[in-house]
Structure formats: C-alpha cells, structure tokens
Amino acid sequence: MKITDVKIEKFSAPLAEPFRVAFGVIEDSDSWTVKITTDEGIYGLGSAAPLGFVTGETLDTCYLVMQDFAKAFIGFDPMDIAGAHKLMDSMIYGNGSAKCAFDLALYDIIGKKKELPVWRLLGGTDPVVHNDITIGIDTPEKMQAAAEKFVFQKGFDILKVKIGIHLDDDIRALSLIRQSVGRDVRIRVDANQGYTVETALQALREFDKLGIDAAEQCLPWWDFEGAAQLKRENKTGVKLMLDESIHNIYDARRAAKLDCADFYNIKLMKCGGLYYGAQIADIAEEAGVGCMVGCMQENKISIAAGVSLVAAKKAIVEADCDSFMFYKGDDDGIPGGFTREGGMFRLLEKPGLGIDMDI
C-alpha cells in the first residue's frame, strides 16, 4: 500500500466563550485537518491544533510544515509508522501538532486496513474512559457557577480547575467549588506554570485541606530541578503532575531520573501523536509514574485518538480530553469516535479512529 494523495483543510468552529489560563487567553479554535489517501482506496484523518505558547507553532507555520510533509509522504508506505516519524523528525525539529496530524491519519489507515479500532490496535481491551471537564480562570463566583453546571446539569464527577494567576483567588474559587459540589466530586488543578516553588508549597497545603487530588505544572516548563525540589518538599496528599515540561520521550526520561512528578500529562499535540505518546506512557510505567492524556483546543478527531490512548495504556489512569465540548452547542459537530454520557466516554468498535466524516 502506498500514499497517493494528501489533502489539508482548515477546521473552524466557534468557542462558546474565551478560555483563560495562567499564561494566556484562548479565543479561537481553528485547526488543520489532514486526509491521507492510499492506492487501496483507504483514507485516514488526522488533526493539528497548534498553540503558540505550548507547541511553538502558529496556525500559519503549522500549515507550511504540513505542506512539506504532504509532498514527502507521496509514495510512502502508510503502515510504517516508525519510518513516518523518522522521516518527519529528519525534516524538522519539534512542530508536534503538525506531526500529530500525520501520525493520527496513519494510525487511522492502519486500523482500517487491519479492521481494528485504534484503541484495540494499541492494545486496549476496555472501551470505557472516565473523563473530566475543565473550568477556566474567571471570578471565583463564576468558576463556582461553572462547577455547579458541570456537576449537577452535565453529569461530570471529575473537575479540572485552572489556577495560577493570584493565589488568594485560586483558594477562594476552589473553596467555593468544593462547598458547592461536595466531597464526592474529584478536583484537580492546573497552574499552567504560574507558581514558584514557595507559592506552590503554600498552595499545596491549602489544596490538601480542600481535598484536591493533584496539582499540574506549578512551575515554569524548563524548571525540572525546581519540580524535583517541589516533589521532595511536598508533604501533602496532593499529587504533582507535569504537562508543559513533558513534550517528548527525552523530557519524560529526564523527569523520571530526577523524580520530578507523580504524573505526566501526555498531549498528542506536544509529542507528535500516538507513536511517541505511547512511548512516554511506557517510560512513565517503568518509573512508577502515572499518566493522564490531556488536550489543547482540539476537535473530535484527535480527541478520539487521545481517548484511545487512555484505553490502551496501563500507566494512563486519567483523562482530560474535553476540548470538543467548549464549542458553541457543546460539540464540534464531528460525528463518530465515541459516545458520551456525562464524563463516561465509550469508544466505538469501528475500524481506525471511527470518525464519520470526509474532507
């Protein structure tokens, strides 16, 4: 089987409202969809959702890189996923979301060729994944109202709360949320690099009182030594997670060696797709570290892939694959991939990613 055509199109769906995190505001959700077609008539879909302050890509630079990949992949064997990454890595450093789009499209093709859903192709046996929902930074009262809506109207029992700008506001928002939703709802927080070691240690003591499960990326992405210090000095029950620090297998190995965290947040757009995402999970498992699969402002193509990785890997015990629900209408309009009831996602038995669309 050989690749005969690659098509790239923009995917646009309006966000219900801007989404604020510690290092910026996400106001739009444009991404790129790639369709790779083979000489056997099988095609695969992938998606690239670049985010400048995480992946170092803009929508425009991502498209330029994808155009180069598209030319290079003509005549390539789509079943050779390792060779595909070797080719892309030889062409350009980083650019994880551009590489992710091609990675996902190839896995979609491989699954269709082998008549297996990607989650089974990766080794999964249980199609059900328990997912959280994210609350962006706002006034404490508005964050409390969002938590009440997600728990009591939408049926979620795991919340991820964005923090990291003002510690006092963080504590107030979390206190109000806990007061509203009770102790049975799990809560984790994400500081998006907004704290220092000192403020993080102070925050963790307060988080512990509120029954917070985990705190994600308290420190700047580059501060592995600080993350190791924070883990050594954390005497609370709050687990520590790295996100922006873990882009590739080398980051995962460094974090494991320094004992920087209890969990890694794997994002397909950071690491370049399922191929390397699965390897990060394996590195974590060997080091006794848990994993979560998170997302950027992604649509259901890459979300289906991320949920598939959760279902497939033993080390991945948490899921934060919720971005497709922040579009107007609570969905991006892309059919297939999985069904959902509240925070319970059930992957489909359809071959490949199970996405029912074409471009």
Task: Walk me through what this model shows.
By secondary structure, the chain is of the alpha/beta class. 41% of the residues lie in helices and 20% in strands. It contains 13 helices and 16 strands. It has an 8-stranded parallel sheet. The protein has a 3-stranded antiparallel sheet with strand order 1-4-5. A 3-stranded antiparallel sheet has the order 6-16-15, with helices on one face. Strand 15 and strand 16 form a beta hairpin. The protein is globular, with a radius of gyration of 20 Å.
Give the amount of beta strand, in percent. 15-25%
* C-alpha end-to-end distance: 21 Å
The parts where pLDDT drops under 50 for at least 5 residues are none
Average of pLDDT: 96
Sketch the major β-sheet. 8 strands, parallel
Radius of gyration: 20 Å
Spatial strand order of the main sheet? 7-8-9-10-11-12-13-14
Helix-and-strand structural type: alpha/beta
Please provide the ordered H/E string of secondary-structure elements. EEEEEHHHHHEEHEHEHEHEHEHHEHEEE
Number of strands: 16
Q: Rough shape?
A: globular
Number of helices: 13
Q: What percent of the residues sit in helical stretches (DSSP H or I)?
A: 40-55%
List the helices and strands and how they pair.
Blueprint: E1 3-11, E2 19-21, E3 24-26, E4 31-38, E5 43-48, H1 52-55, H2 59-73, H3 81-91, H4 96-114, H5 118-121, E6 128-130, E7 133-135, H6 140-153, E8 158-162, H7 167-181, E9 186-190, H8 197-209, E10 214-216, H9 224-233, E11 239-242, H10 249-258, E12 263-266, H11 268-271, H12 274-287, E13 290-293, H13 300-312, E14 316-319, E15 338-341, E16 344-347
Parallel strand pairs: 7-8, 8-9, 9-10, 10-11, 11-12, 12-13, 13-14
Antiparallel strand pairs: 1-4, 2-3, 4-5, 6-16, 15-16
Helix pairs in contact: 2-4, 3-4, 6-7, 10-12
